[in-house]
Design a protein that fits this description.
The protein has about 70 residues and is an all-alpha fold. Helix content is about 75%, strand content about 0%.
Length: about 70
């Protein structure tokens, strides 16, 4: 017997995981390679991941809010 169950992962969890991974990798590389000349790229990636996550979450929240009213 096969049971098919529709499950949906909350968008917030997906966004948090994606941007957390980007942020985490950037942070780890900064710690592991303190004197690398490309550290400024990692700072940009960290800031970009946080900003992208916030923007995506805000747009998603607005979309849900406008659909519910």
């Amino acid at each position: 017997m096969n049971f098919y169950k529709k499950t949906q992962i909350p968008s917030l969890a997906v966004y948090a995981a994606i941007y957390g991974i980007i942020f985490g990798i950037s942070f780890w590389l900064l710690i592991a390679h303190k004197d690398s000349p490309t550290n400024w790229l990692l700072y940009v990636a960290m800031i970009g991941s946080v900003l992208a996550g916030l923007v995506k979450f805000i747009f998603h929240s607005r979309k849900q809010h406008s659909q519910s009213t």
